[in-house]
Specification:
Layout lengths: L1 E2 L13 E4 L4 E3 L8 E6 L6 H12 L1 H6 L2 E7 L3 H11 L5 E3 L4 H5 L12 E5 L5 E5 L6 H17 L12
Parallel strand pairs: 4-5, 5-6
Antiparallel strand pairs: 1-8, 2-3, 2-6, 4-7, 7-8
Helix pairs in contact: 1-5
Length: 168
């Protein structure tokens, strides 16, 4: 994952406040400075590749918690549709409804060019924003494992100098 150019220095993390599959408001601001947050912007709940990535993200639930990371997945679908998918897969993380596309738009940065779903952003506990393009032809489990490795590395770094701590 690479820091988003022009955003890391500003410490700017776009607003992300959406209804979850549980009908609760989920806001990224409530997590900043306390947790690493992985935000996966998916195509649609009917996309087979996106569904595979949902499973892969869920399989690493214990590792996400160990690295103080919270995973959320943003879909352009209704809360009711998301609830069905969450129940079907018994997902341990929230699915967020972005029916109007405003959240996806807020995370579309000029420096990244024309983004096409799916893509992943990660925000470390120090509010640095990272980006990973997702290849639908790639192996979902390998991609998710790569993201987890990056989060694990980010968590091991010193917040002041960026050097990995020896205890990690």
């Amino acid at each position: 994952m690479e820091p988003v150019k022009g955003i890391k220095a500003q410490g700017f993390v776009p607003e992300l406040s959406l209804l979850s599959d549980e009908g609760q408001q989920w806001n990224i601001r409530d997590r900043l400075r306390r947790k690493n947050v992985v935000v996966y912007f998916a195509h649609d709940i009917s996309c087979a590749d996106c569904r595979e990535r949902l499973k892969a993200l869920a399989e690493l639930e214990l590792q996400w918690r160990r690295t103080l990371a919270e995973v959320v997945v943003v879909f352009p679908n209704t809360v009711e549709e998301l609830k069905e998918v969450s129940d079907e897969f018994n997902l341990p993380y929230p699915l967020l409804s972005d029916e109007d596309g405003r959240a996806a738009e807020a995370f579309s940065f000029e420096t990244l060019g024309d983004l096409e779903l799916p893509y992943i952003f990660a925000v470390d506990r120090y509010a640095t924003l990272f980006f990973k393009d997702v290849d639908d032809r790639g192996d979902a489990r390998e991609e998710v494992a790569d993201v987890w490795s990056e989060i694990d590395f980010l968590e091991s770094q010193c917040p002041e100098c960026g050097v990995a701590r020896e205890d990690s």
